[in-house]
Amino acid sequence: MAMTPHATTFHFEGYRFFPKKKEFHFTYRIDFSDRAPLTFTETIRLPRSPQKISTAFQKKFLEPLHLILGISYYKLYCPPKIALPFLLSKEQATFWTTVYKKGLGEFLYRNKIDPKRLATFPSSSVRTAPIRLDVEDRALLGIGGGKDSIVAGELLRDVLETTSFLVETQRRDPIADRVAKEMGYPALRIQRMLDPQIFLPHEGAYNGHIPISAVFAFLGLLTSALYGYRYVVVGNEHSSNVGNLRYRGETINHQWSKSAEFEAMLQEYTRKFITPDITYVSLLRPFFEIRIAKMFAKHKQYFSLFSSCNRNFTVSRERPKTLWCGTCPKCAFVFLILSPFVPRKDLCSIFGKNLFADPSLVPLYKEILGFGTQKPFDCVGTFEEARAALFLASKKDKRDIVVRTFLPKIKHGRHLVETVMSLNRAPTLPTRFRLLGLNSVCLLGYGREGKVTHAYLKKTYPHLSIGILDKSRDKNYLAKQSRYELAVKTPGIPKTVVTIPYITATNLFFSRIQNPVIGVTGSKGKSTTASLIYAMLKCAEKKVRLVGNVGEPMLGVLVGRIDPEEIFVVELSSYMLDDIEYSPDVAVLTNLFPEHMNYHGGVANYYRAKKNIFAFQRPGDVAIRPPFHARIPVKEKEIPLLGPHNRTNIQAAIEAVRSFGVSVSAIRKAIKSFKPLPHRLEFVATVQGFHFYDDAISTTPESTIMALRSLSPVGTIFLGGEDRGYDFRSLEKALRKYHVRNVVLFPESGKRILRSRRGFTVLETRRMEEAVGFAMTHTRPGEICLLSTASPSYSLWKNFEEKGEEFQRLIKKQLVGK
To answer: Over the chain, what is the mean pLDDT?
Structure first.
């Protein structure tokens, strides 16, 4: 009796590119302790010659492809050791160890192999960074011949330039061919030739399932990079996240490489180690398969072309003549989920018979519906959606044996239908795709930004039903969210109160804009800094637009025409950054101190939100933060902005425009001609020899201290407003340091600002008119009366603008009276 070979090491021998043949060769070797090694070479053939491929490009895309293709050969003997011809970091090695372990989960279970026996990928202290690519804003759509890729392709129609992507393993795929032809997109075909030795009998070798979707994913990344596509799009659904069973402490999922877990891992790996310019994305991730089936049912032109039956996609055996075998789990499941939405006559025409009427399929449907021992090892959906589909199908006909057998076992059918037809959260799905396939959205908040968002949605997604939920219209507006599939949340509403999946206008803007973007944030100074950047670019005769908090709403840009040479300057609040998924090309942080703590739930969360402006930057992007070192090219007296903090704002702006080739003369001109923004140390008037300044923007102790440093001498100051729990001890010290004598205190925080009133003349009031009267009485000629409240305005005013405008109106009234 022959002994089972003892494999010792699996070698990833290397890869080679043959430009004339348009081929990549990937070589592997299995070493044994008791016999000669086995060597395999897999070939990937391109449809057309790419441009010259650099060494850096080959390293970034061919090394990971080498690793994933090797899984087909590794599984033959599962050697305990892996040897690589290149280095992996610890994080990269962990990724590949996980992909092999979870991707081979079903294989391990069927062959009764302990997952702990699998080799781990070796790591080193090497550091690796991604490369940047020049890709076009278009999609490479994976076509497999089934309903999911068809639905994905139809959703992309008229949304994004799309090319079909087909992987042909060993032979031409007539099913995918016909589907791609009907879809009408141009096609790119990659030929994958496994080493013929893999189909030969090998003594003691294992056989079984591999994570084929992971193989296609890395082939898609390579193809996108070679031919310039921003997205690799596939049609994987929410249902694929659910596993089949537990084995030795691990969840075994036949569809693991189609799951959201793998997708998230791959997105992060691609961004960190390959390129941030290509994204692998499952377009149907928010949907259960039953909802995808409902969408597919609208496209009858594919009924006679599509197939998901795995017997049609065998690599080594002869394929059947029919599209559906009618006996496997996949055939049974697809018939089931289409049955509520496709007329029975059409359904029987697709499958060649009525599968519900076949008594031999009752045991199979028992497993699919979750009344058996386990979910079948196939790409089938969840028990819940299978039951919901049978419940809906029974409305048409209850006579078939499958329906008669299992319908009585299904409880709460209507609730099941509601659950599986609802939208699921899909954090791996980029914002620009999250509105595809939806029926209804709500605008959560309907202020200035909400109205522009409404116009954008009506123009871009005319089929959508759009609801408006705003507290000005309905005090119970938050309770109405469940009526809609998705919310577009305004920045002022905390994400903690949103109960359905949501997106934001900020992320919609960043997901669509292809132009250079300069983003500015900070606890204070962001509006002034953003406006200075805009002014400097304008003086340099650049095409530039100011958007965000200080300019037009961002989505207004996407409603109109965009010049490809335009630069966008965006002011970003902590509210906008709290759940942002993108970073600007040039990101500026002016300063950071506690603010908006009620909204964010603490200072740590507020700081984290602000720092998100840098979180998604890519190699080559610019990050600007304190301290700033730029030289200001004008004399002190020529600067129209008051205070040392505005000097730092100018320096930040200068650093931001450097990469755009702005000359010193343009910077000088912009600074000299700059008009300070309203309510920011704004001089209002001189009355009876003393001066009124409006600094209503200062709503924190730190910003009020900056104002005191900028103006002198301040005789009277107006303080207080909404109480956010700020620490006012440093402010009180500053009041004494700068010899401020008269203090107006507004509720609610006013009562906490001074621990001791010794040395101050104090007025507590709710009325701005009374406060101005107090200033007129107590401020001396030559002194300043300063509105700089060190607290938010909302206790008495709608916002800081309303507070400042009332202050100015009352002062100007004094002038008229005079």
So the answer is: 94
